[in-house]
Amino acid sequence: MARIPDEEIKRLKQEISVQRLAEARGVVLKRHGSNLIGLCPFHDDHNPSLVITPSKNLWHCLGACQAGGSVIDWVMKAEGVSFRHAVELLREDNFSLAACSSSRPVKRSKVGKLLSPVDQDVDDWTLLHQVIDYYHEILKQSPEALAYLEKRGLKSSEMIERFKLGYANRTLGYRLPIKTRKAGAEIRGRLEHLGVLRRTGHEHFNGSLVIPVFDEQGGVAEVYGRKIRNDLRKGTPLHLYLPGPHKGVWNSDALQASREIILCEALIDALTFWCAGFRNVTSSYGIEGFTDDHLNVFKKYETERVLIAYDRDDAGERAAQALAEKLMAEGVSCYRIHFPKGMDANDYALKVTPPSKSLGLLIRNAIWLGKGKPPAVAPGAEPMVVDASKDQAAKEAKEEKDCSTPEALADSEDVTLPAKALPSLVADLEPPAASPEPPAPSIQIPAEVKVGEVVIRFGDRRYRVRGLGKNMSFDQLKINILCARGEGFHVDTLDLYSARQRSVFIKQASEELGFKEEVIKKDLGKVLLKLEELQEEQIKKALEPKEKTVMLSEKEKAEAMVLLKDPNLLEQILTDFERCGVVGEETNKLAGYLAAVSRKLEEPLAVMLQSSSAAGKSMLMEAILAFMPEEDRVKYSAMTGQSLFYMGETDLKRKILAIVEEEGAERASYALKLLQSEAELTIASTGKDP
To answer: Is the peptide bond before 406 cis (omega within 30 degrees of 0)?
Structure first.
């Protein structure tokens, strides 16, 4: 169920007067100290028992019904509706209902009092459009849904309008005529047939971001729903579609505009590319959701190249390869966009910013999926269209002027920039081409890479760079650089992507070392190219999984399965303990072993070993841990109170945390209890704004 924001509930309780609601219902109120009193309309009242406190905007019946509360409780009692329906009525400022209805409360409202967003006398094509329009308007007014889009990096009002994104918050059902009336039964039956409502009467996409897919005639061919909350009941699907086979192709205009297409696994990933400026993007409906409609549209608009941007997991890899074989059999060249392992387009764009550059870099490094060499791109073949905003780009281009272009950085030597340098140097001057064409020949720039510094030499000129390791995104290259020649030197800290700072460094270094500015400018251009290359390597390395998965051979797997299926497995485990020198304590050994193995479960067990001093607790724990893989063990003598909070998200996932003595865990006891009960830890802390 979509949640009503607390701020909205608080606003209604503060801004709408209970006194106004009571008077609209015909209650005569008299002042009684700081309160107002009158006859309660919710029971047969002859002595004033209704008390309203204007200062708190609350009401209470001291008589037979003993009801009370806020304005929301009043509307629920008076109209016989649910909490959410009462909120919707208050939002609509629909207070005249109280006056025109009976003075007696109803057990359940029979007639909807909210304006229906759909018409009775329209065809199904128009009816589905009206539902999408309603969801679209709801999203634009929903802080919760807009916050979800922002969290996913999709902060574009143009995107919301162009693709008619919406939000289903359960209010559609409240605005329809009640199903016991003829009109209500008819319209609800049609919406159920279309898949908008379920047989229970609930909205199919309730609590979901709604993304419609339009066909070439403008009709709604498919609807995708993505739940925006994660605290759902176990088993609740996060991804929803209309019932029946998938139809239509999302953003089919892109296929008409370009013969080169990025194909994503999910619509959220496709929107990520679109918001980053890569507008020639579409999506299948999951890894098995490339339909005949997709293939037919590819053929119709003569698509030549497809860049498959499926998730980088085992399922995504298999699906990408199978799809590539299918498309190449139709004469379409296929490339694979490789994200770091375990990531998808949206994950990557959120972690490596700005997305326009990081995604562009992956596109340029797309891997050919066919056999032999990739086909050459025909001269004049159109690149991927990037319809990004040019206002900010024009401003920055003006500031960069003579210092930002590749020619300015290397104007005294014929230097060709590698393709990977384009996102950081000229992305603001012209849209980055998104074609997986082979990169231009790169310059081989030798460098001495040491711990904490990089040394690059050009003749008798030496450049020492420090601080490169702190640059973990493509939008900055802030370093400390020393330029030396003999005993002369110039050192400064600057961002190499700032034209103004580069100009100052070039001028001062040339004065200190006695060179012309053109020489230092050429050197600095080469240094920048080499540092970009090293930066890319360190970012890729940082995004790779910290630990390599231990792979078992087929022989080892077979032996493990034989042991696992052995009916005497527990006896075998006890025998192995004895062989290791641990005798007795059979129950404790098995309990400890099973608790350690439970690390693989969703709700692992926890064990505390207690005994008198020198009774063998440590020996038993060491023996149990010795039976577990080394990479799955995390052992400490003691822990501070904050240590668990600052571990990585996956540092303890599926692992055993062993603490030698209880005293060593005393300061971390609160965090350990939370970790056991909630399975996660969060902490708020201050930090420096970079």
So the answer is: no
**Can you tell me the distance from the alpha carbon of 175 to that of 355, in angstroms, rounded to the nearest whole number?**
40
DSSP-derived secondary structure letter, 544: S
Contact of 321 with 287, CB cutoff 8 Å: no
CATH superfamily for domain 124-241: DNA primase, catalytic core, N-terminal domain (3.90.980.10)
Nearest to 178 by CA among 170, 187, 169, 166: 187
Tokens representing residue 17 in the block: 């007067």
Encode pLDDT of 250-300 as tens digits.
999 999 889 999 999 999 999 999 999 999 999 999 999 999 999 999 999
Whether 411 has a pLDDT exceeding 90, the answer reads: no
Give domain 253-368's CATH number out of 3.40.50.300, 3.40.1360.10, 3.30.750.24, 3.30.70.260.
Answer: 3.40.1360.10
HSE on the CB side for 473, CA within 13 Å? 12
- Beta bridge partner(s), residue 197: 203
Q: Which residues are CB-neighbours of 101 under 8 A, at least 6 positions away?
A: 78, 79
Residue 316 neighbours by CB distance under 10 Å: 19
Determine the Cα–Cα distance for residues 611 and 618; give it in Å rounded to an integer. Answer: 10
The structural domains of the chain, with segments of one domain joined by +, span: 6-100, 124-241, 253-368, 393-543, 566-678
Q: Give residues with Cβ within 8 angstroms of 621, minimum separation 6.
A: 592, 609, 658, 660
Average pLDDT, the chain: 82
Rounded to whole angstroms, the Cα distance separating 366 from 312 reads 13
Q: What's the pLDDT score for residue 418?
A: 36
Q: Yes or no: say if 297 and 253 are a contact pair by the CB < 8 Å rule.
A: no
Q: Does 93 have pLDDT greater than 90?
A: no
| Neighbouring residues of 43: CB distance < 8 A, sequence distance ≥ 6 | 61, 63, 64, 65
SS3 482: strand
- DSSP conformation class of 178: P
pLDDT tens for each residue of 494-505: 999 999 999 999
Instruction: Please report how the helices 517-543 and 499-513 are oriented relative to each other, as an axis angle in degrees rounded to 10.
Output: 130
Say whether pTM exceeds 0.90: no
Yes or no: say if 127 and 118 are a contact pair by the CB < 8 Å rule. yes
Q: Dihedral of the CA atoms 509, 514, 515, 520 (nearest 10)?
A: -10
Cβ atoms of 227 and 1 closer than 8 Å = no
CB atoms within 10 A of CB 315: 13
On the question of pLDDT at 150 being above 90, the answer is yes
Beta strands 448-450 and 333-336, pairing class: unpaired
Nearest to 617 by CA among 640, 579, 585: 585
pLDDT tens figures, 474-484: 888 999 999 99
The total number of residues shown for the chain amounts to: 690
CATH node for 6-100:
3.90.580.10
CA pair distance 352, 332, nearest whole angstrom: 30
* Rounded-to-integer distance, Cα 115 and Cα 203, Å: 17
- Per residue in 426-436, pLDDT tens? 233 333 445 55
Q: Give the C-alpha separation, 678 to 107, whole Å.
A: 40
Give which of 352, 341, 343 is closest to 548, Cα–Cα. Answer: 341
Q: Which residues does residue 165 pair with via DSSP β-bridges, in sequence order? A: none
Please tell me which residue, 483 or 115, carries the higher pLDDT value. 483
Cα–Cα nearest to 265, from 334, 313, 333, 328: 313
Measured distance CA(536)–CA(474) in Å, rounded? 8
R_g of the chain computed on alpha carbons: 33
Contact call for residues 336 and 327 (beta carbons, < 8 A): no
CA nearest 177: which of 169, 168, 186? 186
Determine the Cα–Cα distance for residues 264 and 534; give it in Å rounded to an integer: 29
Residue in this structure with the two tokens 């990557």, named with its chain if needed: 348
650-651-656-659 Cα dihedral, nearest 10 degrees = -140
Token couple for 667 = 């300061």
